[in-house]
Amino acid sequence: LLITVVIMKSLAILSFGLLVLGASAFHIVVDEAKQDLDWWKTSVIYQIYPRSFKDSNGDGIGDLNGITSKLEHIKEAGADALWLSPIYSSPQKDFGYDISNFTDIAPEFGTLKDFDKLVTKAKSLGLKVMLDFVPNHSSHEHVWFNQSVNRVKPYDDYYIWRDAKKGPNGERRPPNNWLSVFGGSAWEWNEKRQQYFYHAFVVGQPDLNYRNPDLRKEMENVLTFWMDRGVDGFRVDAVNHMFEDPALRDEPKSSNDVPPDDYESLDHIYTRDLDDTYTVVKSWQVLLDNYVKNHKTDGKLQILEAYTSIPKSMKFYDVGANPFNFMFIASLNNGSSASDFKRTIDGWLNAIPEGKVANWVVGNHDNHRVASRYGFNNNRADQISLLSGILPGIAVVYNGDEIGMVDRPFTFAETVDPAGCQAGPQRYHIKSRDPERTPFQWDATTSAGFSNSTKTWLPVHSNYKTVNLAAQKVATKSHYKIFQALTKLKKTPTLKKGTVEVLLATEKVLAVVRRLANNPTVALLINFDNKPVTIDARTWLNIDEKKKIQISSLKSGLNAGATVDTTRLVLPGAASKPEWWESGIIYQVYPRSFKDSNGDGIGDLNGITSKLEHIRDTGAVALWLSPIYSSPQVDFGYDISNFTEIDPNYGTLADFRNLVTRAKLLGLKVLLDLVPNHSSDQHEWFKKSAKRIKPYDEYYIWRDGKVLANGTRVPPNNWISIFSGPAWTWNEERKQYYYHQFASAQPDLNYRDANLRREMDNVITFWLDQGVDGYRIDAIIHMFEDAALRDEPLSHRPGVPPTDYDYLEHPYTKDQNETYDVVARWRQIMDKHSQDHKTDKKYAIVEAGSPYPLMMRYYQVGVDPFNFMFIGTLRNSSGPSDFANAINEWMYNMPKDQSANWVVGNHDNSRVASRFGYQSNRADQMSMLAAVLPGITVIYNGDEIGMIDRPMTYEETVDPAGCNAGRERYQLKSRDPARTPFQWDNTTSAGFSTSRNTWLPVHENYKTLNLAAQKIASISHYKVFLALAKLKKTKLHHEGQLEISTDNDKVLGVVRRRPHQTPLVLLINFEEAPIKLDLRSWLHLPDSIDIYTASVKSGLKVGTTVKSAQFMIPGAAAVILAGKDLA
């Protein structure tokens, strides 16, 4: 008996309360009169996208001779047939799907002679050859179309021509409202013929008219031509677009929220799935069957691309053809549960007519790669491949899926796919198919071994050095080796002829069982939980007690060949592979101060894009951008005049899209600073609200003033702005006060208004559509205020003036219960977007400096609260016990299974090196502590090189918090010292700008304290940080248990332990003098251990082995110790 174990690590686990655990049995019908099944019935069909498979002549475009040279790979992978995407003569407007001659080869791919050589070699290897048959349309350069334009018979009616309609002013209009799949009208005027022609796709692809018998005969001749050259079958493209309503009725509008010229804006009841299609498909099947009969060949397969409903798909079986099953592409995604998979698989198997063959499409050239759709890091691609192979019938894979290739993000400038180009720079990334079409990654040589040219038709993915076939062939375990094992298993009698059962053990475990009398049973087990699950598979699946693992997914930790006890079978979960952020570094970029690309002294998006490699090199998994939205800049971007535009100081939306694309190429996620509490007083919403224009009249918090006995008008209550002074400002136009928690130019939004809430929902969705991976949510605790406007009590803090925010306690303007409901709604929006767009889960973290019980409630609604203990609780005077208590308090209060986070610094507080003492070297200690502790490390740009605050005069101060505090108190409030430009090198303005006049002065220490200098130094803050980033990627960091202890309240010890591995230890000496430690007794360390990294001024040498029983830690030093087995 063979047990195939697949571990499903879901990005979004859905919970289902199942009461009945069902099983469905389907019997594979076998014609006993034949010795073998027809070749395709249990086959693996391998799709080749010719432009991207292998280039044989160095022009950067794949070709037929390149494919021929790699046919052995297809055979060795275990495929039975290859399907070639279009190779016909074509102007390449849609990369081969616009065909100018259906019976010739495009010169970039080769010649008919080259094709014949390919077929001959394929047959010698036992491979069938299938072609992509594109019957819906031709190219507008096809001779048929040119003859049709000229009304030459019989070609005059080969296409769909219609007269124009006249508009109210006599203008020419298309015959109806039909839209192209690629966007815009589906009708194009032809001046010569003086008629419109219909094109379901691009203008260069006019639709053929299948109501014309001469045209149908032409296409039958095309099929026969290729069968005569040895072709074994056809994948039929876009078959459900072949007929349109002859009455040309307008199509109704859909409910989709897309632009009016987008294909999805209409319901396509008159241009898709018409019954006439089945008649033509049946005639083709008769043609194929007669060819087989007359020429005594193996069967010819006709398999159809028809993204349609199951009932309409099943009708193709009725006429002898096979419809593609796109459930793994269109119906299921990385958020689908075990129940979803069972229901969807059962739905297809139950619908198939008796005696017909199922098929399971893993991926193709028109959709994101399976590893990207299902989460490359979570190893779901193996699971989908295994499912497609174990289930009965045909498995269809796309070249590159067998090695786990992933999508490559593209800029609009790089985009060549017409679907993306026509969508425009704002929406191209939604429509473009370029990301999944990049060249095959054969090895780590030039252009991934695809071509000897460095310039390829689409860029090679940057990960090719590690993700390539050659590397996976020599690896002990790899996607490729799993695929080979699967295809070998698929050829066994059990998988060819056995019954199939699809079962649920629990709501989190799916099984597919294949049985055949007198043959081994094969069981595929998939754990959807994020934790290990123990099941009694013997009872559940009716199998023997001791069985062997045949295949397991790449990162499951289970090994093929191992014998397991099926009565207590442990299926590993996803806990060992966290969400992308859970042990990562999030790098905050303050855009004004990071990098200036145009010499105006202000940092901008293009500057950030030019330095993304630096962020990648720090080991960060994501960058968080402080506000970049349109703004009058009263509070430097936190006063927003348009939530969906980029401020001109920073660039354009196109610049932002380029930044996102480049970041994704580098493996970086992008987080935006969402500022929901308030807008600018220059926002159109506020201007309309002041005029009482609906629905904007209630978008802000307006109240009448109070009138004193002497007739003086005063604000509604005593609330004070964070930036000092009353939190209410009179608006003369509306004759009311408006509330502002921050500057008077930042009026608070009213979240009790449903229209306003919808506006902000749309803002969140807008940026998610631009590729954003999540949000840092600003000032979340201020979003709601007491509806009764009760006065806040005095704080009685000494020395605080009555205009200062700290003069009052704030029970009525912070931490109101309604806040959590809004945040929960935003979590739902992000999750739905991830599910709908098949992306990784979105991350959200909120700025909430609240008491622990209130902060921890954010975890319950699906977001993380920032942990500001290094900023708000601990300081330079804190001792080891203070740190231990603070860390333990957070870990104790945090809900189980959530991720901690440790904020080292940000733009609102003094830099960590200034807060904890630059000279005493405490900045390294904080970075080291934040990195060794479990969870997320959040750093502020410049912390990685130990930048410090620059003192400012009152005249230099620009921060409104400082300016409003006045000359005597500005130093207490101003945030300018922490916001000075990043120090890249020792050139003009520290390399931040070519201008000497920067928006804030550069710190004068930039000549010695800069990134370039630290990169070449043997010891530096930057080098320490790189070591920490590497440490955070280890299994010991991800899985190790945490222990915190102190030694005589002088030394803090942080230990991470994992079974069968040397512990990882951080030691921080809070004394100025050296201290001798017995680490063997105190922390139970082995006799000797190595120095992994140490603070810059410690004098300790990295790599040195030390004795645990007598370790001397220098004064004010921090050191990390680890074993040689650190991994």
Automatic annotation (TrEMBL):
It catalyses: Hydrolysis of terminal, non-reducing (1->4)-linked alpha-D-glucose residues with release of alpha-D-glucose. Residues 47-437, 588-979 form the Glycosyl hydrolase family 13 catalytic domain. Keywords: Glycoprotein, Glycosidase, Hydrolase. GO terms for biological process: carbohydrate metabolic process. It is an enzyme of class 3 (hydrolase). Pfam families: Alpha-amylase. InterPro entries: GH, GH13_cat_dom, O16G_dom_2. One of its GO terms (molecular function) is alpha-1,4-glucosidase activity. Its EC number is 3.2.1.20. Belongs to the glycosyl hydrolase 13 family. This is alpha-glucosidase. It comes from Trichomalopsis sarcophagae.
